[in-house]
C-alpha cells in the first residue's frame, strides 16, 4: 500500500510540473521587467480553448499582489449570453524575476505555464504561450496591433511549431 501511495504522489507531482513546463524549442524572454508588463492588455488573437470560446472584447489586466505575486483579471464578453465573463487568478515567477516565465492559477493549487516568448522593447505587444503548443495569445496595449508586428509574431510562433492557421482574431 505504501508503494501505491508513493506512486500516486509522484504521479500527481509530475502532472502539476508538466502544466508549468516550457514547450519544446520555446524560450521565455530574458531581461523581463514585470513593472513594465503590468497593466491592461487586449487579446488580439488566440488559439481556441473552451474557457474562452465565444468571447470577444477580451482583456487581461495584471497588477501586483501583496505577497509579491501578480493578480490576473481576465475578462471577455459573451455575445450569445449577453454577459461579461471574468476570472481572477494569481501568477508567480517560476525561475528568476527577469525571465518572462511565470506559473498562473485560476483554480486553487493547479498552475499552468505563462511564457512570454516575444515582447517589443516598449512593452506594447507580447506573444504568450501556455504549457504546450495548443496555447498561444497575441496581446497588445491597444485594441489594434500594427500589421508588421502582428505578422512578425505570427511568423515566430509558426517557426516554433504553433498551429497559427488556427488563430482566432478577437473583435473589440
What spatial order of strands do you see in the largest sheet? Answer: 1-2-3-4-5-6-7-8
User: In CATH terms, what is the fold-level topology?
Assistant: Lipocalin
Number of domains in the coordinates?
Answer: 1
CATH superfamily: Calycin beta-barrel core domain
User: What is the CA-CA span between the terminal residues?
Assistant: 55 Å
Mean pLDDT across residues: 91
Count of individual beta strands: 9
CATH architecture: Beta Barrel
The percent range for strand residues is: 35-45%
The portion of residues assigned to helices is 10-25%
Structural class: alpha+beta
**Computed Rg:** 17 Å
Largest sheet, strands/sense/barrel: 8 strands, antiparallel, barrel
CATH class: Mainly Beta
Low-confidence stretches: 1-17
What form results from the Cα inertia axes?
A: globular
SSE series: HHEEEEEEEEHE
- Please give the count of helices: 3
